[in-house]
Amino acid sequence: MLSLDGLVVRYGDTVAVRGIDLTLTDNEIVTLVGPTGCGKTTVLRAVAGLESPGEGRIRIGGLTIDAHHPVPPEKRRTGLVFQDFALFPHLDVYRNVTFRLRDTAPAEHWLTVLGLDAVRHAMPDTLSGGQKQRVALARSLAHAPALMLLDEPLSNLDAALKTSLRWEIRDALKAAGVPALWVTHDQDEALSVGDRVGIMRDGRLEQVGPPETCFRDPASRFVAEFLGEAAFLPGRHAAGRLDTPLGRASATDGPSLPDDVDVLLRPDDLTLSTQGDHNAEVLNGRYEGETRLYQLRLNSGTVLKARVNHEVVLAPGTAVHTSIAAGHPLTAFPRQT
Ligand SMILES: Nc1ncnc2c1ncn2[C@@H]1O[C@H](COP(=O)(O)OP(=O)(O)OP(=O)(O)O)[C@@H](O)[C@H]1O
């Protein structure tokens, strides 16, 4: 279990972390995401014991750490996985994973689970990036950590490997049953590997919740825009219903909304057709493989994006009909003038 209670971390006069409250349950994976410099790595470093908390408390298992009660990194039972793998270059895979281990059985287990049996006698510089990261993970897990800390574990790998390895790491963490704090700058990674996602901004957590909630019902425009393509369509709110020029929807948080709102529309919330009343014009399109993303200008002037099947090919300037297709409630914010 990990619990942060009002965590503040300073570097001299710079306040990098400005009061974070966060509790991870037994085998929960929480991803931390946010713009560069928002304090993600500093949170991880403070938990690992590489920075001291200026204020607040860190609890790891039975340990309580604060400014007056420091605990050295090696006593915290945290497993660290960094983007640069940090393997011992002069030791082979097996000796890297068993380093300082009295009982080598857990090392054998993780070498097998992570598909490293065939390279157990290879030296690190002969391994691929994905293999190096598996070795780093096996080494950490073999020490039976109380908590895993991962700092951009996939950022040095190519795109295809990133996607497959993210599932492998998630599966291994779940199999080990340890809680994990996973820092990434990649929104897709944060949404797909985290049981919960924490979105940081300027040293604070702006929202923490299940990925679907943060994506579909963001707490702020900042979170909405940070997690994916977002457009805001002026509309009216009444009794939990949202009325817009592109159709109606129910509101995620109706009672607290004013009458004049901006409705958050993700590209997959819209349909697009050349049939029907034309209410928009295609500005440009982007091929994405399975899908295409079109930027549209409504007759009212609002610019939106719609994501459709790749077979729908529309030239810039094409007149189209677009409407709200989302079956789920939509999030709206007080109208910004
Ligand atoms: N050793 C340091 N000394 C002084 N300031 C630092 C130090 N490390 C980080 N900072 C500052 O603390 C703030 C948070 O940095 P941090 O590295 O935690 O952010 P981050 O969200 O992990 O960024 P990135 O995504 O770029 O890695 C930034 O303003 C950064 O400049």
Automatic annotation (TrEMBL):
Q: Which UniProt keywords apply?
A: ATP-binding, Cell membrane, Ion transport, Iron, Iron transport, Membrane, Nucleotide-binding, Transport
Q: Where are the transmembrane segments?
A: none
Q: Which organism is it from?
A: Spectribacter acetivorans
Ranges where the ABC transporter domain occurs? 2-227
Protein name, entry field: ABC transporter ATP-binding protein
Matching Gene3D superfamilies = P-loop containing nucleotide triphosphate hydrolases
Pfam families recorded for this chain? ABC_tran, TOBE_2
Superkingdom of origin: Bacteria
An example of a GO molecular function for this protein is: ATP binding
Question: Does ATP-binding show up as a keyword for this record?
Answer: yes
InterPro entries recorded for this chain? AAA+_ATPase, ABC_SmlMolc_Importer, ABC_transporter-like_ATP-bd, ABC_transporter-like_CS, ABC_transpr_FbpC, Mo/tungstate-bd_C_term_dom, P-loop_NTPase, Transp-assoc_OB_typ2
